[in-house]
Write a structure and sequence with these properties.
This protein is an all-alpha fold. The chain has one domain: AhpD-like (Up-down Bundle). The protein has helices at 2-5, 13-27, 30-42, 47-61, 63-80.
Length: 97
């Protein structure tokens, strides 16, 4: 189901992933953030696109949203530099392939 959900359709895959990242930040799910940020990197989502979606998460969540948006951004930068962010216990099984 995840592969179909995050594939191109009427809405391009990158927008679905960016939405998933914003929702993950809003619900404060670090394993979700990790999985979707990795998928976003693999799909070539630009930093500027990510920032705009994180601004939506911040707007919706206020100060907690800003804290989690900064975590997302840091993780994105780690993946972009070739680093692999530390693994936390998973709350759900994500496919990042």
């Amino acid at each position: 189901m995840r592969e179909a959900t995050y594939g191109d359709g009427a809405v391009p895959a990158k927008y679905k992933l960016l939405t998933a990242i914003a929702i993950s930040a809003a619900i404060r799910c670090e394993p979700c953030i990790r999985a979707y940020v990795k998928m976003a990197q693999e799909k070539g989502i630009a930093q500027e696109e990510l920032i705009e979606f994180l601004e939506v998460a911040i707007t919706m969540q206020g100060c907690p949203g800003e804290e989690w948006a900064l975590k997302v951004y840091a993780m994105y930068k780690e993946y972009a530099s070739g680093e692999q962010p530390g693994e936390a216990a998973a709350c759900c099984a994500h496919r990042t392939e």
